[in-house]
Specification:
Rhopdopsin 7-helix transmembrane proteins, Arc Repressor Mutant, subunit A
Amino acid sequence: MITLLIIGSFHALYLSIIVIAKRNKVTPDYLLSAFLFIIFIVFATLYSSFKNNNPDLQLYLIDISILLAPLFFLYIKTITDPDYKFKWQYLIHFIPYIISSSYYEYIFNTLPITEIDWLVTDSRDFFKKPIHYVFFQLLEHAIIPFYLVWSYILLKRHKKEIIKRYSFYKGVDYKWLKKFVLIFGSIWLTTNGFMLLNANFLFIDEGEIILLGFSISTILIFYLGYLGLKQNAVFSREGITKKTPSDSGKIESPKTEVKKKYKEKYKKTGLSKDDAINYKTQLLYYVKEKKPYLNSTVSLNIIAQDFGIASHHLSQVINDQFGDNFYDFINKYRVEEFKTRIEKSEHKQYNLLSLALECGFNSKSAFNRVFKKLTDQTPSEYIKYIEQNT
């Protein structure tokens, strides 16, 4: 297991350097790099503790762990919050680390070695130890699950935000991060559960439990580093306009024209009913002419830029005038496109997946799920029905 610690330590350092060396870095990259670098320090400290038979270093290990939790939380916050902007208030998350770090520094500079060893190694008399030491120990045990739960809540909220802005889930739903949070939480609970039992029954050396927990975590380092390196902040990409299958240039209805005064007038307020109706008419014309839904990665922001309207106004029009979120709005057109092609017997020339991809879906599973949701039929059932009635 010591070997796993060494591997995990250098791998975390390597990934930290790779992430910070990325081109076009955004805030989440800096936070992920810092998180991985702190993990490198944690693993290196634990290794030194066992290698030199110096359990006193575990105090620093506890201290650093209090730093890891808010770093990971802020990483998730920056990649899931479309309106994220750095605020000085966020530094409050690091106050526990600053206080605990000062406290442990005080311990090392004032207490004799024998007393420090007693604090660190004797788990049986835990509640007989100084109240401030017990407090920081309990803080370390509480702060990690607190931030893990908070992070998971952010990821759940992010899924709701996706349907307002995207017409697909793949690559933007952060399923891998949810798994990471759940697996890490499971390892944390298991390790601390064993430590709690061990404090009462002393069936194994506590250091071995800690070593086992961190050694298993090495696998998570590979997982987080690899996928984190590939993952960009979802909402930071929204401003990149992608071409739709039709001609370039904005489509404007002959009856209504999107004017700049609307953007300025309603920049910070909702649209009036009349303007919303006008935008609805023009949006229907735009979608019919340009078919942006054929672009499998189309987003609310892409259409808003091409259409010439603020994204939050476009979202309001879709919600209020069509009774849909952006995800359902776009996918309804994709399903109708698929139906049209089936009626033209294109499924006899191409397989269903090819047709689905041509209609804007980006995977077979997404296509089947959406089609079933909107029609109460599977694609095969629908084709069978059409063939029997033509």
